[in-house]
Structure formats: C-alpha cells, structure tokens
Amino acid sequence: MKLHLSTSLWLLAYLLCCLLDSALLRTGNSFGPVSLAGGVALAALLQHGWRILPWLALLMCLPGLLLALPLAQVLLLATAKAACCAFSFFLLAYPAPLTEFKTRHALCLLWSAAGVSCAVYAWLLSDLLPLAGGDQSWQSGFTLLWLGQALGILIVVPGFLALQDEIRELRANWLIEATTLVSIAACGAMLLLSDRYHDSLQLTYLCFPLLAWSSLRLGQVGNSLIALVLLLILGSPSVAAGLPGEQMLQQLVLLGMALQMGILIAVIRRESEQALADARIAKQVFNHASEGIMLISSQHKVLAVNPAFSRITGYSEADALGRPSRIFDTRPGNPNHSQRHLLEQLQQTGHWEGEMQDKRKDGELYPAWLSISAVHDLEGRLNRYVGIFSDYTSRKQAEQRAHYLARHDSLTDLLNRNGFHEELAKALIRASTKRRGLALLFIDLDRFKSINDTLGHDVGDQLLRIVAQRLRMHLKQDDVVARLGGDEFTIVLENIHQVQQVSQVAERLLQAMAESYLIDGQALFVTGSIGISMYPNDGSIASQLMRNADLAMYRAKDLGKNAYQFYAHEMNSLNTQQFSVQAALRFALERNQLQLVYQPQMNLATGQLSGMECLLRWQHPEMGWISPAEFIPIAEETGLIVPIGHWVLLQACRTAQQWRESGLLVPKVAVNLSVRQFKPGVLLEQVSSVLAETGFPAYLLELEVTESLIMHRINEVVDIMNALKAMGVTLAIDDFGTGYSSLSQLKHLPLDILKIDRSFITGIPQNDDDLAIAQSIVAMAKKLSLSVVAEGVETEAQMLALRAAGCDTLQGFYYAKPLPAAEIAAMMPKV
Ligand code: C2E
Ligand code: CA
Ligand code: CA
Fold this sequence. Notes:
Elements: H1 5-24, H2 36-48, H3 53-59, H4 61-66, H5 71-93, H6 103-131, H7 136-139, H8 142-195, H9 200-235, H10 237-240, H11 245-288, E1 292-297, E2 302-305, H12 307-313, H13 317-320, H14 340-349, E3 351-359, E4 365-376, E5 382-391, H15 393-407, H16 417-434, E6 437-445, H17 448-455, H18 457-473, E7 480-485, E8 488-496, H19 499-514, E9 517-519, E10 522-524, E11 528-535, H20 542-558, E12 564-566, H21 576-590, E13 594-603, E14 609-620, E15 624-626, H22 628-638, H23 641-661, E16 668-672, H24 680-694, E17 701-706, H25 707-712, H26 714-727, E18 730-736, H27 743-747, E19 753-756, H28 758-762, H29 768-783, E20 787-791, H30 796-805, E21 809-811, H31 821-827
Parallel strand pairs: 11-12, 14-16, 16-17, 17-18, 18-19, 19-20, 20-21
Antiparallel strand pairs: 1-2, 1-5, 3-4, 4-5, 6-8, 6-11, 7-8, 9-10, 13-14, 13-21, 14-15
The structure holds ligand C2E and calcium ion (2 copies).
C-alpha cells in the first residue's frame, strides 16, 4: 500500500481530531459531545475513495487505546467507526459522484449520512460494546453517540465540500473572509463568556441568527467554521464545567439543528442565486440581442418576442403575442408556404437553419436568416420553439453587389467577360430552341492606344465610358452589350432573320462611335472596327462565334478601319499577319507585283528541253520576295486564288503564245492548279476563255493537279478532268507519292503525266527505300501508260539513278532554277 502525501495529511488531520475529540471528553466519560474525527474520516474517503479506508481503520483503533479499553473493545469500536464511515460514503458518493454540492447532496448528507449511518453506528456501539464487557455508559449512550457522530459529519463534510468548490474564490477573498470570521468568532466567544453564569440557553438561541447570517454571508465554509468555533468554546471543559449535563445536551441538539438549517439555507441560496443570475443574463441577452428572438408554443402561437423582433418586423409585442407564427404557415399566399422541408427537418432533428422570406408589417418582403430549435421538457415532450432570425437584406445586398461586380465592368457598367459569356450561352440556347438567328459583334476601337498613351488613362477611361453609353443608346434594351477589357466591346443581337438587320445596326454603331468626343473641353475623334459572326452559319458554340467575330474584326481593320466585316469562311485559321499578307495580296495583282518564272523540264532520252513549269513569284515592295509556299495557301483560303490562278493561266499562255509568234519552238507549258479553281463553272470557263483569248493551242498546255486534291474529291474531279481532256489539254498529277492514292483509282482518271514528289528524290541514291519507291512508281506509271517526271533533281547521281529507273523527264536545280521568261526563251530552238 502506497502512502501519498495528501493521504498522509488526511490521516494526520484525523489523528489531530481524535485528540481534539478526546480533549472535549469530560473526565470519566467514554464518548464526547462531538466526533470531529468521524467527519474527517468521511471527508477523506470522499477525497481519496476506498483506498484510504484501511489506513483510517487502523487509526480508528486510537480512541480505544487512548481510553485504555481492552483489545476486543478497541477492535469493535474501530470496526463500528469504519463501517459507519464506509456506509456514509457509499450512500453519499454512490450513485452520484460529488462534483458539485447541491440541495440533493445536502439532504442526502443529512438523512443518509448523519441520520441513517450514524444511527447504525450508535446502535452498534451501544448494543455491542457492553456485550464485549464495555462500560455501562455505552448502553445508554445511543443518542449521544448518534448526535456526536452526526454533528462531526455535518460540521466537517459540508465545510470540506464547499472548500473544494470555492477554493478559488476563497483564495481571492481570503483576507475579507478571514477577518470576518475572526471577528465573528471573537464576538461569539465574548458573548458566551459574558453570559456564562446567567441564562446559557439564551446563548444557544444566539447561535441561530449567527449561523443563518454566516450561511448567507459566507456560504458553507464560514458556516462550518463558525459552528466549529462555537462548539469548541461550548465544549471546552472550562465552559462545560459550568453547565449541567442535561443543558449541555439540549444545547448541542439545538446547535445541530441550527447547523442543518444553515447548510440548507446556504445551498438553496446559492442555487437560487445562480438561477436568478442565469435568468437575468438570459433576459439581457433576449432584450439586447440584435437578432429577433421569439418563443413559440408547441401549438405554434407566439409566446414572447424581443425588441429586435419589433425593430426588424415592425410588429409590436402586442401585435405578435398569442398570434400563430408565420414560420409554420404553409398555406399558399404566405411567402414561406414552400418551406415544408423546414417543418420536416424540425420534426426529425429538432433544428432548422436557413434563409426564408418574411413580410414586414408595412408589407415589404425581406430575406431573413432563421435558426429555429425545438425545446423539450425533462420528459422529452415538445415544450416550445425558439426562433432566432436576422434581417438578411444588407448581407443579401452585399452579396448582390458582389455578384453584380463579378458580372459587370466597373468602369462602364456594361457586362464584363464573365457576364458576357453567361449571357451569350443563354442567348445561344434561346436561339437554338427557337431556331432563330443570332449575331455576335466584336468591336475594337481604332487607335485607342494612342489616345491612352498621349492623353492619359483618365481621358481613355472617360472615352470608354462614352463609347459604352453610345453603344447602349443605339441598341435595344435587351441586347447584350459587354466590355471584355481594354477597348474591346461585344454585342449580341438576337432574333436575326436577315443579314441586313445586322449591317444596319453595325452602321449605326460605327456612326455613333465616329462622332466627336468632348472630353475635358477637348474634341477627340475615334472610330471603331466591327467584326460580325452569325449563328448558326459561322459557328454553333460561343467560342467559335467569338473567334470568328474576332477574325472578322481584324479583317475590318485591315480593310482600312472604321468598317464592319462579316466573318467569311476563308478567314478561318488565319492570323492577323496572314490578314495583312492577304490584304497586300489583293493589291498585288492590280499593282503588277506578281510575275511568272519558268523551270525547264529535260527529256532524258534526247537531253533536250521537253517542257517547263510555270511558277508564281511575288515581289512585295516592302516585304520583299514572298514564297508561293507562303502566300498560295492564303490565296486559297481567302478565295483570291481564283483571280490569281486566272492571271497565271493567262500570263503563261500569253507569253508562250508570244514566243511561238516570235518563231520559237515552244514545248509544253505546265501550269499549277489550286483546289479552289477546281470548280466546274470556274475552271472550264477559265481555261477555254484563256485559250481562246491568247490563241495558245490546248495540246501545249499542261495542267498540274496535286494528288491529294484529286484523291479527296475524286468524284467531282473526274468530270472536270474529262472535260479538260476533251478540250485537248494535258493533265499531270503533281506531288505524287504523298497522297496514298491507289492504282485502281488512278486508272479511272484521264491522266497523261505523273510527277514524283521531290521528297522521294532527295534521298536518292543513298536511301534504298526512296530509290525503291521511285523505281516502283516509274514501273507503275509505265503500266498505266503515263510518262513520269521526277521533280527536284539536284545532283548528277540523282539524275543517273532516275535514268536507270526508267524516268522520262527530269526537273530540278541540277538543270536549272525557275528562270525569267527571257532566259527560258533562250533555251528554246527556233522553228
Ligand atoms: P510544286 O508545284 O511542287 O513546285 C515545285 C517547287 O519545287 C517549286 O517551288 C520549285 O522552285 C521547287 N524546285 C524545283 N526544283 C527544285 C530542286 O531541285 N530543289 C528544290 N529544293 N526545290 C526545287 P516554288 O516555286 O517555291 O513553289 C512552291 C509551290 O507553290 C509549288 O510546288 C506549287 O504547289 C505552288 N505554286 C507555285 N506556283 C503556283 C501557281 O501558279 N499556281 C498554284 N496553284 N500553285 C503554285
Ligand atoms: Ca507543280
Ligand atoms: Ca510538285
């Protein structure tokens, strides 16, 4: 068994009290008026639990030994004491551990501990000790034994429990408490001693108010100490000596009763004070809360409302009390009739929290944040509801403002990019369900940057604001207008039936933007460029429409700004730089920047010039020489290839015809054709008119068509080729080997010449694969009775390998680069 410090302190206290108890004994008596040791034993048990009991039992033998009783009696006495103590502890601590000393515990202490177990103790001793040969006084001592033991418990235990509870408060106020106690004790003692020879009963009565007062003022700690002091004085041999035994007993009984009353008063006062304080705080919270609070009966009637309730709703307390609460009203007409889930959840979980609509007395609807809880009584029956709500308007407004700013541009108040995309998405859904057209206008101000840079951002901002106003003014109320950032504006026009509707709006907007801007007394001039894409023709999804409108806008800028431009399919995939190339290309024809060069084709058998390929060159005055590989695709995408192709054809035939007329023996002249020219109405018309116009014979004209073009649109192409063939024109398949065409397909085409793509020639002779491919192409061509031209021959080795493979004609830098007209003419023999 281990002995802790606090355990030993308790045991020491017990020992001291045993000595004190025996000091109070009158000579010749075996038991005294009070057993403080009994109280200390119970308190020690309460503090340390059962493990201290063996130590206590050991010490309980001490009184018997002090009285010099025989061993059997000593043991019996100790056993009875220990049993009483254990029994009291059992009754007190079990079933409720003493964490807080309440009325319940005070009563338990009185009846169970002081009453029952002390009676058991007194009975045990008064009946059993005489049997063990004890003193006769034990036999008649039941009452005194009982009272002495009970008194000890009642003085020490409540004091100890209270001390445990209040130890912190006591520490804070110890000086006040100590002085009060000392003065009360001193006064009591003086009173006692002065009255000693007169009427001592009067003195006992004095104890009542004193104890009541100490209970109220000092609580249980003071109460117990006062009782202790009084008892010590009263029980001290010097005082007791002057009192007859009967009177003494009477006084002790009265004192005990006073003590019980004190304990009860103290506990009850403490509890009711606490309850009152709680109620006061609750009332204050209720009255001063900024949230509206209402108590609602289980029948949904309003029981109480606080001032905030009236402030928020406009209903006074009198208006509200006794009325059915609107929270539970689910009839139609009530703003909350849809809140059935509130009632369901309240029933299931006892709580609901959320936003609801409420109506003020003046009829104004407002959003309220409500938290409502069901309150149940101890038996679990629904007692009432407590609803707490706040006016949600300002938070809602802040939310709305934040929401507004998330979708709007703070400078112009137009929609911002986010807002615009949302609206565009909605408009597209409407357009697709109603099967209506829609136009997306992309506006960019011309030269806005220079205004911003030279006049400052303030001026720039003001200008943007005016532009926004003008755009708004010239559009319908529900047309979507947005500023995407910088000087970019977008507009959505819905329900479009005709393109003219859109052009009218665009013209109106251009005019409005072009009017002068008066900013800081200064007139500014700015124009805008508008690109337009149409749903569904130019795209069915937002991103596509946006991109196309953007492309169209750049085109409008290219065409000289202050203009609008509808998106045209050809713009697709072109970037700005390409646009400027394209814009320049448009003028290239008119300004004679295009010219043709001619690359010789040599016949391997004869070593003579057997033909030539016409290749286009563009000499741009600023950009310099531009490769056809770069501008032909742009010309194709924009459709400019049609007039350009016509020019090439015309130029080639005209030049060749001039050579002929000047007496030269002109071989075949090959002209490249683009996919865009390959349209029945276009090509046949172009070729026949050019031949007719120039007089160049059709049999000398060779047209090159790329393999990929043929293979992608074989059905369309076949007819055109047949028609060309019928005119007497020679047809060549260009870049052969790159289009994965099959022999069976080639068979059906009216072809004369097959040009092996340069990529296969480059690897010859070192690359075996390339050589094999070239060889098999030649073999295959021969089978189909086609003559073969190898393109891009740069070395003698290539030439030799191709000759060995059976190639008819070679073309490439090995022989000559594409040459100007005069130079190629020099290669032709005279007739
Ligand atoms: P293409 O029809 O395959 O033309 C042959 C290209 O190969 C020409 O380039 C030519 O200069 C180049 N070339 C010829 N021999 C050699 C060589 O030994 N080594 C190398 N490295 N290159 C050689 P160019 O003139 O730049 O033309 C490029 C393409 O532009 C042509 O390829 C053709 O598809 C297109 N093109 C040129 N002129 C016209 C035209 O008038 N109309 C159309 N529709 N397309 C044209
Ligand atoms: Ca070619
Ligand atoms: Ca080629």
